[in-house]
Amino acid sequence: MRSVKTLATAAEAGRHQREWFADLRRRVADGEPFALLNADVPHEIFRTMDIPYAVSQWWASLVAAKQRSGHYLELVRQRGYPDYSEQYNSVTLGSAFDPEPEAGPWGGLPRPDIVVGDATGDVTRKVFDIWGHEPGVTFYPLESAAENEVPANWWELMPHRWEQAVGPARLDLLTAELENLVRFLETTTGRRFRESRLREVMALVNEQEEWNRKTRDLIARTRPAPLGVVDSIPSVMLPQWHRGTKWARDIARRFYEEVRDRVDAGHAACPDERARLMWIGRGLWYDMGFYQRFQDEYGAVFVWSMYLAIAADGYVRYGDDPMRALAARFAAFTDQLYTPPWSSEWYVKEARLHGIDGVVHLVSDDPRGSYFTARALEAAGFPVIEIHADNVDARTFDDEVVRRVGQWLENVVLA
Predict the structure, then answer these.
(1) CB 3.0 to 4.6 Å from 226: which of 128, 262, 324, 328, for a disulfide?
(2) Is 360 helix (H, G, I), strand (E, B) or coil?
(3) Angle, CA 252 vertex, CA 248 and CA 258 arms, to 5°
(4) What is the pLDDT of residues 262-299, one digit of tens each?
(5) How far is Cα 72 from Cα 92, in angstroms, rounded to an integer?
């Protein structure tokens, strides 16, 4: 089933992404340096220095949406690497091995000069290490630190009291690493870093995410839901890849205004809404129509995904030192989504805020605390069904998953 998109901002974001990628390919063809970045590293450095970049996970999502992930995973397997682990980054790695890269979506991903990733786990680090063995590609790793003290209600601390939430040791480490990254980029690309420009970028990101917070809160309190995740994901996530631009700031504002207008007009994603569902996990990029099925058949609307919620709670950072504030944005980013109790308490908070009736939890090969997330939600009174599949590898997903979720809705959530 094809997904149904009705928001003008979702359509505009899709058009902008195509135009941006065509321009990126032109810039790279003209000899500009090109960087491939992991989703959880500070893109704002590259925005500040006007270095063209793309995000590994975004490319994998596009490949999956075009039903091409199997091709790239086959190229990974042909090189002797596993095609069943960390597919979200492995799919993009496969593009490095493609003998006909221009046959890829939208003309193909250019070969990067620089790859930057964080050492979140052993597998992720190894995927990016392989990039570094490719001719002409330099891999620049960032550490992934941990902290024993976990703050309660980190989402309340992060905008202004991030030093307290994250801890000075983690911030010292990442700030120093980002300063070293800047020196490396200045040396290798010839681009200059200006702190005044970083301040502008940080201010634009904060404005963008403040609009996303207003949108999240509006959706959370509106019954029935004015839209589902099929609309909200592209409207918030594509602009996230352009953080620090006026376009991203402005479309976040228009996204809020469009949702507000729907609420004022009494428009509902499903007028006969019977249940509000939460989707925990990455987007199911090869089958976005999955979410629509249950809305049409059961009146069960997926009103929550991590993309709008983490935009609302996870990015806003105010402070006089822009580099340290940027470090605070990412030093604990994976904790917020995947490490209990950071993540589990946040998911429970969001479920309560949105009036969730049931949680569908996508558990991939790298679950990152999924057990504790599910248990925390169940302990708080929210029924959870876990589906084991990978969000870009269609081989792991079949109609049995849809059948199981339907039965769970009938027998548990709607009973």
Answers:
(1) 262
(2) strand
(3) 140
(4) 999 999 999 999 999 999 999 999 999 999 999 999 99
(5) 7
